[in-house]
Automatic annotation (TrEMBL):
This is GrpB family protein. Pfam families: GrpB. SUPFAM superfamilies: Nucleotidyltransferase. Coiled coil: none annotated. Transmembrane segments: none annotated. Signal peptide: none annotated.
């Protein structure tokens, strides 16, 4: 069991603004080198409860080394794909002016990127499923406040149900 305190909050309108602040800082060094910067994950879906961490996918077109060097020049540290092929992960230190965030770099046709976008867009358009997902997240965070693995496992049935509805699995 990995112990990690699990906090799930009701949707916060500030998350959108916080994403924009991070995006604008990234664009200073990435403008012209990338396809887009996508706000993904639960904080990107208005009305969805979430852990207060911004998930960001930087979308590239086969120029990872150039983007990696640019990110490293402003304090991001490359961590590899952490077991998810084609989704390169970066951590950071000394960015107290930015909200806590996870930063990933993916090629534009990467399966994980496409899954993030499809899931996000589906939840943005389907309030009933969004609300159901919110409830299971809150329930699992309450039930497993110190066990991230059980929290994740507890959400799986609802996630898979939504995946089926939006065509991400059979």
């Amino acid at each position: 069991m990995r112990t990690k305190h699990v906090i799930v909050e009701d949707y916060n309108l500030e998350w959108k603004n916080e994403f924009e602040r991070i995006k604008n800082e990234l664009l200073v060094i990435l403008s012209g080198k990338i396809s887009s910067i996508e706000h993904v994950g639960s904080t990107s879906v208005e009305g969805l409860a979430a852990k207060p961490i911004i998930d960001i996918d930087i979308v590239i077109d086969e120029n990872f080394e150039e983007v990696r060097q640019s990110l490293e020049s402003i304090g991001y540290i490359y961590e590899g794909d952490l077991g998810v092929s084609g989704r390169e992960t970066f951590k950071y230190q000394n960015k107290p002016h930015l909200m806590v965030h996870h930063l990933y770099v993916c090629n534009k046709d990467n399966e994980e990127l496409l899954r993030h976008i499809k899931f996000r867009d589906y939840l943005r358009q389907h309030k009933e499923d969004r609300d159901k997902y919110s409830e299971i997240k809150k329930d699992m965070a309450f039930k497993y406040p110190e066990d991230i693995d059980s929290y994740i496992e507890g959400k799986q049935p609802v996630i898979l149900e939504i995946y089926k509805k939006c065509g991400l699995c059979e």
